[in-house]
Amino acid sequence: MTAALQGSLMVDVAGTWLTAEDRHLLRQPEVGGLIIFARNIEHPRQVRALSAAIRAVRPDLLLAVDQEGGRVQRLRQGFVRLPAMRALADNPNAEYLAEQCGWIMATEVLAVGLDLSFAPVLDLDYQRSAVVGTRSFEGDPVRAAVLAGAFIRGMNSAGMAATGKHFPGHGWAEADSHVAIPNDERSLEQIRAHDLVPFARLSKQLAAVMPAHVIYPQVDAQPAGFSRRWLQDILRGELQFDGVIFSDDLSMAGAHVVGDAASRIEAALSAGCDMGLVCNDRAAAELALTAAQRMKVKPSARIARMRGQAIASTDYKQDPRWLAALTALRDAQLIG
């Protein structure tokens, strides 16, 4: 008898409160997580209320957001506007500042009832990819790993698990996988020598990894997130990574190469993803859910590792570390 395929879905909702249709979707056992976007956010109190409403329906759901800093920062009003990570690198105390950024980000996200931000970005800045650009810590792989490692220490000390993205590296491919299917024509040896370095060095600190919707034709004809070669042989085997694998958003153009939403979720989970994200397209989410139900998927036990470890507190601004972290970032002219 074949073991049930492990995996679940992460979905989203349209507004700042839950509809009856949202509640019905979230009750489905194949749904294991929910990600919020800017459209779901007004201010910290409202996000806390939305988180509480979601947990009233499903206390076990993993709640996520993209809160990297710089231009990828969904929580804005009432939150610290963190710098783009690339801005840290030129500071003499860049490592300390990266750790403070990770701690501030995680503290604020946990305080509104969410479990995690999909961070940090481990892609290298080759000054080729506009979609990566200043989201990257550095172009040098060892330096990028050091700064990302400091950011992760900050996240962890606040109680948040880290997700490295976008494995095995999105910095070389010039196309934006949100709207196209990028190709990275380099050999595995070239990628190993550069882009894989941060993932390899941080494999024990990362609780999760998110693969890129990029095709590396010299390694596999499928995008990394649908590739057993990348996810099983290289990430799990070569790098000995035992954490969670989240797909990137399966509604992005870079994922369309494998077909409709049902085909995409099946391909992602079959390749080894523990959770597939289907965002900004409710019809696609429902199609993916039907496919997951047909496949009789069971949630991956790894997902529990991603839950926020700190009790959500709203008085973090009284913490001396908060004041010290803000002062350090202001002194470095990284925040206003």
UniProtKB/TrEMBL annotation:
EC number of the protein: 3.2.1.52
A GO biological process held by the record: peptidoglycan biosynthetic process
Compartments where found: Cytoplasm
Binding site for substrate: D66, R74, R135, K165, H166
Protein origin, superkingdom: Bacteria
Catalytic activity: Hydrolysis of terminal non-reducing N-acetyl-D-hexosamine residues in N-acetyl-beta-D-hexosaminides
Catalytic class of the enzyme: hydrolase
Matching InterPro entries: Beta_hexosaminidase_bac, GH, Glyco_hydro_3_AS, Glyco_hydro_3_N, Glyco_hydro_3_N_sf, NagZ_Beta-hexosaminidase
Record key words, sorted: Cell cycle, Cell division, Cell shape, Cell wall biogenesis/degradation, Cytoplasm, Glycosidase, Hydrolase, Peptidoglycan synthesis
Residue ranges annotated for the Glycoside hydrolase family 3 N-terminal domain, each copy included: 18-285
Keyword Cytoplasm: yes
GO cellular component: cytoplasm
PROSITE patterns: GLYCOSYL_HYDROL_F3
Site label Important for catalytic activity, positions: D176
Pathway: Cell wall biogenesis; peptidoglycan recycling
Active site residues of this protein: H178, D248
Molecular function, one GO term: beta-N-acetylhexosaminidase activity
Pfam families (alphabetical): Glyco_hydro_3
Membrane-traversing stretches: none
Function: Plays a role in peptidoglycan recycling by cleaving the terminal beta-1,4-linked N-acetylglucosamine (GlcNAc) from peptide-linked peptidoglycan fragments, giving rise to free GlcNAc, anhydro-N-acetylmuramic acid and anhydro-N-acetylmuramic acid-linked peptides.
Family to which this protein belongs: Belongs to the glycosyl hydrolase 3 family. NagZ subfamily.
Protein name: Beta-hexosaminidase
